[in-house]
Amino acid sequence: MQVRAHDFQPRDLVAGDVVLDFVNTVTARDTEPIDWLDDYAALLSWSVLADLPPDAVARLASEAVAHPRRAAHALAGAKVLREALWELLRHDQAEDAVARLTESWRSATTAAVLTGSAGRLEPTARVENSGLAYPEHFVALRAVRLLETLPSVRLRVCGGRHCGWLFLDTSKAGRRRWCDMATCGNAEKTRRHRSVLRP
């Protein structure tokens, strides 16, 4: 897998769930995968788009500068979780992937606090407890909730070339093919149009 710097933009979060968007920090899984998380700063850039609290992200940025080895270790842990989620979402209950998710989830729940929302209690990651592992913990807790309720018939893999992103098909007809019509959808339409025009 290539590792390449990427400037994260709102258009990179189109999956319909932040956990799927995290898995999609690897692009072109259908051909030659490219990992956009080239360093811990990139993970924090993604975290800002994922709506992690700005003050928490700023705190992590300072801590990463002060402790680069710990930041690199935290990034590696987040990537292990990401790949476990990819396997689980694409290949159902892969035993080793379940074990890896379990490890992240246990670490996250150990550092989490219970918070109330709409009459329910749920474990919530806190940067004060998680430290540099905060993004990983945030995703791990969300991932377990997603996997408990995921409508698997609505989980899709983008049909675009050099993409392979996951997304939830929330269309009424349930026939969405692209992660985003403005990118992969239009690219495929252009490719088909050109092939028709060729003699």
From TrEMBL:
Domain Zinc finger CGNR: 154-194
Gene3D superfamilies found in the cross-reference section: Jann2411-like domain (1.10.3300.10)
InterPro entries to which the protein is assigned, alphabetical: ABATE, ABATE_dom_sf, Znf_CGNR
Alphabetical list of SUPFAM superfamilies matching this protein: Jann2411-like (SSF160904)
The protein's name: CGNR zinc finger domain-containing protein
